[in-house]
Specification:
By secondary structure, the protein is mainly beta. The chain has no helices and 11 strands. It is flat, with a radius of gyration of 18 Å.
């Protein structure tokens, strides 16, 4: 972390260049990824388009104790935040352990079957993945 992203050291109270690493001691059954879409004041949303993978692979290099094979996850739900309003919708795969997913859109009082969820764009906000066996 350098430039505008320098880390504020709590010991010397100065911003310093820092290298941040993340290691995982064990993989969770459910992996929830919250995408940082808002500024700290919650009124500015990052509207960049993103593509959400239905399959996610965590490389062995992320683990504190390396594994022989990467851990894979399957997407089973997405929470969407629309524009700068407080409107949320969700997609959920109601049959995540079956070969043919069955996706539903939940929007306030309406729920309906959809053949393919809308997984790209500026609305995905929270992603829910389940570990594959």
């Amino acid at each position: 972390m350098t430039g505008d992203n320098k880390f504020l050291c709590s010991n010397c109270n100065k911003k310093t260049d820092t290298e941040k690493t993340l290691t995982i001691s064990h993989t969770p059954t459910i992996l929830i990824l919250h995408l940082k879409r808002f500024t700290q004041f919650l009124h500015d949303k990052n509207m960049c388009d993103i593509d959400i993978p239905t399959q996610l692979t965590l490389p062995v290099s992320l683990f504190k104790t390396p594994h022989d094979t990467p851990t894979t996850y399957s997407l089973y739900a997405v929470s969407n935040h629309h524009s700068t309003t407080q409107h949320y919708t969700s997609y959920c795969n109601v049959k995540p352990n079956f070969p043919n997913p069955e996706w539903y859109l939940f929007d306030d009082l309406i729920s309906k079957h959809v053949s393919t969820p809308q997984l790209a764009g500026a609305n995905p906000y929270v992603l829910f993945y389940r570990k594959n066996n």
